[in-house]
Predict the structure of AraC family transcriptional regulator.
Amino acid sequence: MNSKFGTFGFRFSEDQELPLCGLFAVGHEMVDTPSYIWDGNLRNDGPLLLFQYTVAGEGTFELGNHRHQIGPEQAFLAEIPGNHRYYYSAAASQPWEFYFLLFRPALVLQHWKLFIKECGETPQLSSRSLPIRLLYFIFAEAFAGRITDPLLSSSYVYQFVTELCRFPTSNLRNRAEWPTNVRQASEYIEQYYASMISMEQLSEQVSLSKYHLIRRFAEITGMTPNSYLNRVRTEKAMELLRHTDSSIQAIAGQVGYSSGSYFIKAFRNLTGLTPGEFRSGQDNLLYQRLFFD
């Protein structure tokens, strides 16, 4: 992480024929005085979206009637203008160090709202996560004077908000960080996908109630255990469809479905294709593998 501080603004001309994302400012600051306070209802530089990420210390973010202390590896998201305030408290024990990114909502507001729906206005994000690494990179590029045109700045904004949207599902690939019982549940599904019958069976294996297993599993992975089971079965089915001559009915049984019709429906829901279309390439592309979220 770059230890230098500064705030950099961007005011590129708008192109009506080529809509772009509008980068407004990026910064890395350290504050230690109560004079640092921003009121979203009093600002006149909007409409803007603000993403502010704490590196060290702590700041306060008030949204409506709720007050949040924003500590290390935590961010807050705010729309400007809006009913919020953020500030440094005189009672804080150390300076508040943070990075921030300000950009126009055009083209990315729906991405922004989707992330908030999934993670809330005050999410925890590891400093190693892709959105935060990209935030550091954008600041470093601004500090070095390399963000010099609207196309480049637009690409950085769009990449940042898409990485935010990817963040919840990217947890699927960070299994080492999953709680033990969630990891055990996923491993059990992957081993016994062809014979699993009920969530009660799975909950017994990890010593959680069915309700707590479903809630905890969805909270960590972004999907229910049953959705994860269907995903594993579909991936195994794709291997069999591509590399064997087994019938679709036979493959349905091999991956754990009680009927061919239910298998076809589940497969299509995830891939957009029937098993037969996937095998034959009737959509004009003969896929070796399909990737889906």
Observations:
- Residues 138 and 285 are 37 Å apart (CA to CA).
- The first strand starts at residue 6 and ends at 9.
- Residues 150-170 form the longest helix (21 residues).
- The two ends are 30 Å apart (CA to CA).
